[in-house]
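[User]
Um, tokens okay?
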Amino acid sequence: MPPRSATAIPAAKSTDEKITINLGVVDLGQIDLLVQEGFYANRTDLIRTAIRNQLAAHADAVKQAVARKTLVLGIQHFSADDLRAVQAAGQRLQIRVLGLASIGAEVTPELALSTIDSIVVLGVLQASPAVKAALASRMR
């Protein structure tokens, strides 16, 4: 058994999401052949490259849809302080994100309900299970 380090360095939290796809055996075999021949480091490398190529090919359509749907592109975080400021201003949020929307762990379901009218996330929503449950009827 290797010796343990005296100081542990916490791993950075990844914003990557895992997905599952079904492929036919011939497609999978071709992927494995390309990996074996050195075109790609592994299956994931090929799949990521293929997805990025498709996204690049449709970049104009994505930009137009983001503008039309008034989506925030990237990462948007809402802390309890942010939501209390919205509440103090007598306003309510319509959250629309393409990427990652994050609601702080310190945000209570009550605070979220009193400040968030609607939430649309094309990508990932990070929030406590209680906040997600409270906002479920406002998610589109």
The helical segments are 25-36, 43-57, 59-68, 80-88, 109-115, 129-135. Residues 1-12 have pLDDT under 50 and may be disordered. The CA atoms of residues 56 and 62 lie 9 Å apart. The longest strand covers residues 93-103.
